[in-house]
Specification:
alpha/beta; six-stranded mixed sheet; 6 strands
Length: 463
């Protein structure tokens, strides 16, 4: 059997202890990451998609068809005294028979090297060639302290929940892991990723959070320069921080070389390509991210947004509807849907989509600006300005982003104000969130020398 694509289903926690869920989920994620580093595998399904099959009743053949993979890895973890027994198997979906299976019994101090041992065994069973560089990658980022490893997995468990409380709890576990092992590169990556989330969700001042993210990623790279996860985090921080597109491209490309199935790196590479006006490259890399993470609403929505930036609106709408099939309450899909419908002149539909986004977010200030934009584009000036007035009266830390105001005032045909707010976005570091080079909503500004000067300041080729 030729195996070029694999999905690792969530390992089952049969320890009888719900408190061990973090360990079992962590082992699943590590196994996915290790297999993703093998270049002979053309597709390793990303953890975000794979973890959706936790406690599923679906059969292996069903899952393999949904994900389009050649083989499925299943397994379970049982507690035996102070040891863990890990059972794993590589299953052929066509026959539902194992191509390989094995049992491992290890203490906590032996769990870390066991992960790469299982990955190598799966590679052998799949008749995959593992290069010496990949062998080294399978052993990268490890700690010699089992307690530090346990704390790191706890940190990732909470980080993956992606809410403010869990992010702070995850960060504290990363800190404790570093107290145990100050040279634990992956724990520094965990801290960097937490700071990136703080910046994205407005939990901390973006400039401060991004500076801390870069410092943590840099420390991880000092310890292990071949750690794909650290290069990914640094690349994301470069995109979000100083508009250093060359540095971002370099870091993300290294991350992909070290981990050819890195969905996150491909998606951010698409963001960089779109920022620089390379819509075909953006679409190609966004689509690659979707191949690796096919059940992620976020990845699907960004593919649709890339079609939107390329002015392929029908294809964008089709992708947004696919996103909503994955998650009918995914707010970003409604926001993007409204943007595309504005460009098609479907103003009432666009307003309806943006209202749906506002309703899903309980009237949050984060989504109201796009409703104002839809009203402005539809010529309903009073409704648009009423929302702007409401947003500008909000107490801190709530605030309307300058990028959003720029879109609204462009639609209101007030180019001076629109350019003023784009300048403000550049100054406060939030400018990256608007793909100004390709954004159709900003077309009325493109002939203005001030707009071209802003692109140059941001390191974006104006032509």
């Amino acid at each position: 059997t030729t195996i070029e694509s694999i999905a690792v289903l969530p390992l089952k926690n049969l320890t009888g202890d719900p408190e061990q869920e973090y360990l079992v989920d962590g082992m699943t994620n590590v196994l996915i990451t290790d297999l993703a580093k093998l270049g002979a595998l053309k597709r390793v399904i990303a953890a975000d998609s794979a973890m959706l099959y936790k406690d599923t009743k679906k059969t292996v053949p069903q899952i393999a068809r949904e994900l389009g993979v050649d083989a499925i890895v299943t397994g379970a973890v049982v507690r035996v005294g102070d040891q863990f027994e890990i059972t794993t198997q590589l299953v052929n979906p066509a026959t539902q028979s194992p191509l390989w299976s094995d049992n491992f019994r290890r203490g906590m101090q032996e769990i870390m090297p066991l992960q790469s041992e299982i990955s190598r065994a799966i590679a052998r069973a799949s008749q995959l060639e593992v290069t010496s560089a990949e062998q080294a990658q399978l052993n990268s980022g490890l700690s010699q302290d089992p307690e530090a490893y346990r704390l790191y997995l706890k940190g990732r468990y909470f980080w993956n929940k992606k809410n403010q409380e869990s992010l702070r709890k995850g960060f504290e576990y990363f800190r404790q892991a570093l107290d145990k092992d100050p040279t634990y590169a992956l724990a520094y990556v965990g801290q960097a990723d937490t700071y990136l989330s703080y910046a994205s969700y407005g939990i901390e001042d973006p400039k401060d959070a991004l500076a801390k993210a870069k410092a943590s990623a840099a420390r991880a790279l000092e310890i292990d320069g071949q750690l794909a996860e650290a290069h990914t985090s640094m690349g994301v921080a470069e995109v979000m921080d100083h508009f250093d597109w060359k540095a971002a491209q370099r870091e993300l490309q290294i991350a992909i070389q070290l981990n050819p199935n890195n969905a996150q790196a491909y998606q951010w590479q698409a963001i960089v390509a779109n920022a620089l006006g390379k819509e075909e490259e953006g679409l190609r890399t966004a689509t690659r991210a979707q191949e690796l993470d096919p059940l992620s609403p976020n990845t699907s929505a960004y593919v649709g947004f890339t079609y939107y930036l390329a002015r392929r609106y029908d294809e964008a709408l089709r992708e947004y509807r696919k996103t909503l099939e994955l998650d009918s309450k995914f707010t970003l899909a409604y926001i993007f849907l409204g943007l595309a419908q504005v460009q098609q002149g479907k103003f009432e539909q666009a307003i309806s989509a943006e209202k749906q986004a506002v309703e899903l977010q309980g009237g949050s200030a984060n989504v109201l600006p796009m409703l104002a934009y839809a009203y402005a584009a539809a010529g309903q000036r009073e409704q648009a300005l009423a929302i702007v007035d409401k947003l500008q009266r909000l107490p801190k830390p709530s605030k309307v982003e300058p990028n959003d105001l720029a879109l609204i005032y462009t639609a209101l045909h007030d180019n001076d104000k629109a350019l003023h707010y784009l300048d403000a976005a550049y100054e406060d570091g939030s400018f990256w969130t608007v793909p100004v080079k390709l954004e159709p909503a900003l077309d009325p500004l493109r002939s203005d020398p001030r707009f071209r000067a802003l692109l140059v300041r941001s390191g974006i080729p104006p032509d």
